[in-house]
Batch of 4 targets.
Target 1
Amino acid sequence: MTKVLYAVACGAPATADLETFVRLAQAEGWHVRVIATPMGVKFLDVDRLAALTGPVRTDFRLPHETSNGLPPADAVVVAPATFNTINKWALGITDTVAVGMLCEHVGMGVPILAVPQVKAELASHVAFKPNLDALRSMGVHVLFDPAEPMPRWEDILTELSAILAG
């Protein structure tokens, strides 16, 4: 049975290299599906990713669509997660399909790893740390050190494996 991993991509520099993460995850046996925020999609080569993963999801389904077209997720990785997405997600503001799906998957108990890529100025904003703490209190795993750049894709997969191993 194939494990399904949702890769949620936001509008941050590391998103331009999401294909590397997808290929690494696929090599570890994951069936990866990509969900992107409206800004995240601007950093992606959507056609290239779709050839690897199937359609890249960027919009809510329409009322006449009975399925969202995605297999159920066994895990979710949000990398890079932006300041905007972290704050909206923690507050339950589901104005994008990506944040809406993140909120739903928290409620479903699906293991989620959030990996923020946030400038130091934004990481020091009064809303950011409490919202990271709120996500942690909901069971979201957060891999973030404001003094370090975003971890390597390999390190993100290692962290996900550790989470799933318990």
Target 2
Amino acid sequence: MKTPTIEWTDALRLDFDPMDNAHRTFVTLLAIAQTADDAALAPSWQAVIKHTQQHFACEDHWMRESHFANASNHGLQHRLVLNVMREGLAMAQAGDKQALRAMTHELASWFVKHTQSLDAALALHMRRFPALAAEA
């Protein structure tokens, strides 16, 4: 059995439950994709994409509604990452599973950096907007 390169740790915790809960789910889904056999790879990646779309949409909504200063850069990363994730799915569905397998590891690395920088700033900002955060 393959070992995932991502797991939930306190280093990913932002002390902001709506984001921490979504991030825990993301880590779980990505770990499943990282360890999936060839038959389960594309479906497990689709689950990662679906969750990520929902989570990014929530963050994007928060940033818009709260007038978050770094919204354009943060949102741009969301759009770029989702586009790459969709391309990885298309490659796997066309038979190139190795490209998607590499992507699962690259996404894990990106996620840690994104969480500890851009998401950490957003979580700190969102603590000032509990009613908005409660909509998640």
Target 3
Amino acid sequence: MGRRQARERTLQALYQLEMNPGAGEQVFTEHKSRLEEDVERKEDLAFFHRLMEGVRKHRNRLDPIIQRFLKKDWTLSRLSLVDRMILRMAVYELLFEEEVPFGATLNEAVELAKTFSTEESARFINGVLGNILKNMEEVQGTLSLEEK
């Protein structure tokens, strides 16, 4: 088990929570215990926990960033639920998981889209995240202003 599996479990758990918001702690606990069975490194379980909690905690900060880099006249609600979750996870990683290289985050997001969504979604996610990366300094600056 590695970070890829932690990302897959996070995606699945976030999807479940979006479909059934009242099941919060139950969904988290269920996915965490499945991961604990497979986990070889405690760091991967910690990564799952940070990613899961980080996306939930920072959703209100992540969504406007994603929205800003969507195609003109697109909204987050227009995206498939899976694509929205993948983008939220990736943007969280880009902003808050400093030890994860940007390229790894981008690649993993595209792979998640290929596995759980479509080839077209993978290209779309790659484009959105690529644009965010090109403007990362500005995005991080905006984030810093929000913290003040």
Target 4
Amino acid sequence: MNTLKSLIGGILLASSVAASAFAAGVEVNASNTGLALQGYDPVAYFTEGQATPGDYKITTVYNDTTYRFASEAHKATFEANPEAYLPQYGGYCAFGAAMGFKFDGDPELWKIVDGELFLNLAQDIQERWEGDIPGYIEKADAQWTEIADVAPATLQAQ
């Protein structure tokens, strides 16, 4: 009986996590887990100048998405003004957004431009994006209004 209760509890928990990931996984890249930035600390990009994995014990939920932090201080900073630390285009690849697609942003391939955090998919994509950052941001901003609420797979199927 206890085994059955544990199994059912695990299924309910998995369903809850999946539902949360689905809700967050369109506009925000939550890697099908409900976890933003693949667990990297969003504040550290701005304060430490580097991609820093967050601690699984130091988290907060913002807009149905879980964020991890390297310290309680970073968590408090984020909670005071989350919008200042959120990655652009929901953490999807900035170059991909400019092309009208949503690809996973790699938290190790990032750049802060005019106080905003941008991620890209791969090193060669990052280098291409850096060739015309203002132009690609302008294109991505325009595309994002159309694709923000569209599932990545739907965009790729078009």
